[in-house]
Each structure stands twice: as structure tokens, then as C-alpha cells.
Amino acid sequence: MADSCGCGGAMDVGALEARQRRVLIIVLAINIATFAMMITAALYSGSSSLLSGSLDNLGDALTYLLSLAVVGASLRAKAAVAVVKGLLILGAAIAVAAQIGWRLAHPGVPIFEAMGLAAAVNLAFNGLCLWLLTPYRFGDVNMASVWECSRNDIYEGFAVLLAAASVWMFDAGWPDLVIATVLLLMFLRSAWRVLRSAFKSYRNAT
Description:
The chain is mainly α and 206 residues long.
């Protein structure tokens, strides 16, 4: 029995699943560490875009943990977990929307130095995660949804860097809110894509 890793080469299913588990453990550890760093920087700097990034990392850590639990499971189980992942992304979007609303009621200028440093470190580690997950992006619904989350992290990293630069350039808080709003829309789009794919896979597995 063989399967494909998405890069064209066939391999033993057991070996593929072992590689998936190793990769998921690594990216899980990275996202737990970056979440702690990002949430600390977000609270210190008062940045909505940085907070959205930290919530995204927390959601990713939970996503990788769920994905790790269903490596080697049935297609139906993987699809069910993918539904949970989509709901986690949706939950992050709701949290970001609430933060944006709070910041609109309590305007302020974030500390751009903390924003930029945290965003740069986070982007570097997100790039590593995406590189590790890329061979599995065309695999089953479980690994495909994990790769989708990791790709979003790259967009988020560049967006927060842009927010930090814009806050510095304009000496105002509105660029941070604009970027946070863009990230909110990205989360909503990603949640829709993951949920649509998950429900389709779940129906096909029944």
C-alpha cells in the first residue's frame, strides 16, 4: 500500500504518517512559542494587528494539535477535525473584530518598534513552518488545511510589518486598524475555504 506526499513520489503509508507526525510536532512547538512572544508584544505595544497575529498563532497551535491526533485516522475523522479548524479560524476572526471595535472606542498609537520586531521574528518562524508543510499541501484534507493555515501566517506576518512601518511613518494608529481589518477579512475567507472543503470531504466519506 502506498501514498503520495504531494511531491510526486510514492512512499509507504506508515512512513508518510510518521513524517507527518514529526512535522506537526515541530510546527506545533513553534506556534506555541510564537504565540507567547506575540501576545506579550501585542499587549505591550497596544497593536490590534499584532494581537490578531497572536490569536492566529494560538489557533494554529490548536489546529496542529488536532491534526496530529488524526494522522492515520479515517477520512471522515479528518474531515470532522477540519471543520473544527475552520471554526477556530472563524473564532480568531471574531476576536479580531472585537479588538478592532475596542480600539475604535479607545484610540491610541501603538509602539511600532515592538510591533516590527515581533512581526519580523514571527514571519521568520512562519516561513520555516510553511517550508516544512509544503510537501503535504496537496495531501488529504487534514494536511491541506494545516498548510492553508500556515500560508495565511505568511500573509499575516508581512501585513503586521507593513502596519508597523505605517504607524512609524504616519505617527498614527489608523494603519494598525486598517491592517487588522484586512487580516479579519483574510481569516473569514480562510474559514470559509476550510469549512467548505471539510464539509465536502465529510459528505464524500459518508
